[in-house]
Design goal:
about 180 residues; mainly beta; Leucine-rich repeat, LRR (right-handed beta-alpha superhelix); repeat; LRR_R13L4/SHOC2-like; Disease resistance R13L4/SHOC-2-like LRR domain-containing protein; plant defense; LRR_dom_sf
């Protein structure tokens, strides 16, 4: 099916179940459902995945993040999401991770960060309830940039030299706290 399809955008089709599409490398989904997220996990050839505006989803099911060639993951507007799945740290090809406007996100996985050896860019914006960075962030030797915005508790904990989490990110060459 669709052997040349490499880029796919899906807008407001939460009941759409994705078949196996091995040629798709770039997928953007707006307003998805838990069922649709399950079908996305079958797209093992993805390089980029953008998930946006999924109000119904409060958690990712374990096993969803088994995309070994995924380099870019953007999770935006998951307003009910409280935690990211542990297996997000198994995305060993991941170089760019953005978590935006996940207002109720309380924690990131505590373990496995050392496996994200390709991660170069991490952006956390609008995650008001996120209280700290996991200890494993210290092991992200390839991390070149970290952006934290509109995360009041996390911003305070990551203040240069004085924040409780500063030692976890002191090795990152470019740390930014943008004011929008």
């Amino acid at each position: 099916m669709f052997p040349s399809l490499s880029k796919l955008h899906i807008y407001k089709c939460p009941k759409l179940q994705l078949p196996c599409l091995p040629s798709v490398k770039d997928l953007t989904v707006w307003e998805c459902s838990n069922e649709q997220l399950k079908s996305i996990s079958n797209l093992n050839g993805l390089n980029q995945l953008h998930l946006d505006g999924c109000d119904e989803v409060s958690y990712f099911q374990e096993g969803m993040m088994n995309m070994t060639s995924l380099a870019t993951l953007q999770i935006s507007d998951f307003r009910r999401l409280k935690e990211l799945p542990f297996d997000i740290t198994k995305l060993t090809a991941l170089s760019d991770l953005s978590i935006n406007k996940c207002y109720n996100l309380e924690c990131l996985p505590e373990q496995g960060w050392e496996d994200l050896s390709s991660l170069r860019h991490l952006s956390i914006i609008g995650c008001y309830r996120l209280g700290s960075l996991p200890d494993g962030v210290r092991h992200l030797a390839s991390l070149q940039s970290l952006t934290i915005g509109h995360c009041p508790v996390l911003e305070k904990r990551c203040e240069k030299g004085t924040g409780e989490d500063w030692h976890k990110i002191a090795h990152v060459p470019h740390v930014e706290f943008p004011r929008f």
